[in-house]
Amino acid sequence: MSDMTKSQKKHLRQLVGQCYEKEMTLTLESLYKEFRKWENIGSKEGISADITTPAEELMEMMLERNFSMVPITKNNKLPGIVDICSLVELRMTPVAERYFR
């Protein structure tokens, strides 16, 4: 690069800048397309369950709406969140205890 004139170096920097800008534009367009694809995946309809809701009812709610987690409320506060794996484990514990003693 030391054999290049000032003008050539300037032109090379401009070309590198243009390449970088084009690459960044293509990358951003690709990211934007990916974002648009996933943008509407989340549910706009939220659900929650009272702390006294039976596990079977929670599982039914989750399966009907294809949710993996449900916030649990008590007196309009959020003491926790339950996930489908915990509910399945809860259901399976008596079966496991019976067969794997």
Please name the CATH architecture of the largest domain.
Roll
Overall 3D shape: elongated
How does the helix and strand content classify structurally?
alpha+beta
pLDDT average, as an integer? Answer: 84
Largest sheet: 3 strands, mixed
Helix proportion range: 55-70%
Physical arrangement of strands within the biggest beta sheet: 1-2-3
What is the H/E order? HEHEEH
Write down the Rg.
28 Å
Distance between the termini: 76 Å
Query: Total number of β-strand segments?
Result: 3
CATH structural class of the largest domain: Alpha Beta
- Tell me the number of helical segments per DSSP (H or I, 4 or more residues long): 3
What share of the residues does DSSP label as strand, in percent? 5-15%
Uncertain regions: pLDDT < 50 for 5+ in a row? none
Which fold name corresponds to the CATH topology of the largest domain?
CBS-domain
The CATH homologous superfamily of the largest domain: CBS-domain
Domain unit count = 2
Question: How do the strands and helices of this protein lay out in sequence?
Answer:
Layout (H helix, E strand, L loop, with lengths): L5 H33 L10 E2 L4 H11 L3 E6 L2 E7 H16 L2
Parallel strand pairs: 1-2
Antiparallel strand pairs: 2-3
Can you tell me about this structure?
This protein has 101 residues and is an alpha+beta fold. The chain folds into 2 domains: 1-41; 49-99, CBS-domain (Roll). The chain has 3 helices and 3 strands; from the N terminus they run H-E-H-E-E-H. It has helices at 6-38, 55-65, 84-99, and strands spanning 49-50, 69-74, 77-83. A 3-stranded mixed beta sheet has the order 1-2-3. Helix 2 (55-65) packs across helix 3. The N and C termini lie far apart (76 Å). The mean pLDDT is 84.
